Amino acid sequence: MSNIELGEVQLQFAEIVWREEPVGSGELVKICEKELSWKKPTTYTVLRKLCEKGLLQNQNGTVTSILSREDYYSAKSEQFVEDTFAGSLPAFIAAFTARKKLSRQEMDEIQGMIDAFRKEQ
Questions:
Q1: For residues 54 and 51, what is the distance between their CA atoms, to the nearest angstrom?
Q2: By residue range, what is the domain housing residue 104?
Q3: Looking at residue 57, what DSSP letter applies?
Q4: In a domain, 77, yes or no
């Protein structure tokens, strides 16, 4: 994925599309008017910009994502760890747990992921 940067407003819009897709562009205008108090031109401007960024597509009046919500946030997480911790996941976890203690359930979930990754290798 190319590094797609979204501002707060663009992210709110993307969240609506991810939740509603596939969604007709006319219906998207109505949703944005109700949830974001946007006028039609604002909706189409933000849609066009996110299509240009390669996040969304508008084909024959139907809006869908090119990049799923999960893939977007996964890439953002990877980029954060790369930029902030030189790509070291252990360094990230050490920094994260220095101030927030993990619950037993969280530790079990993480251990389950580690076990699953080991089985794949």
A1: 5
A2: 88-121
A3: E
A4: no
- Residues 101, 58 share a domain: no
- Residue 22 maps to a domain: yes
User: How many C-beta neighbours within 10 Å does residue 86 have?
Assistant: 9
Task: Give the DSSP letter of residue 117.
Answer: H
Report how far residue 82's alpha carbon sits from residue 80's, in angstroms, rounded to the nearest whole number. 5
Please write the tens of the pLDDT for every residue from 76-118.
999 999 999 999 999 999 998 999 899 999 999 999 999 999 9
pTM exceeds 0.70 for this model: yes
Cα 55 to the center of its chain, rounded Å = 10
Q: At a CB cut-off of 8 Å and minimum separation 6, what does 92 contact?
A: 81, 84, 85
Number of domains in the chain: 2
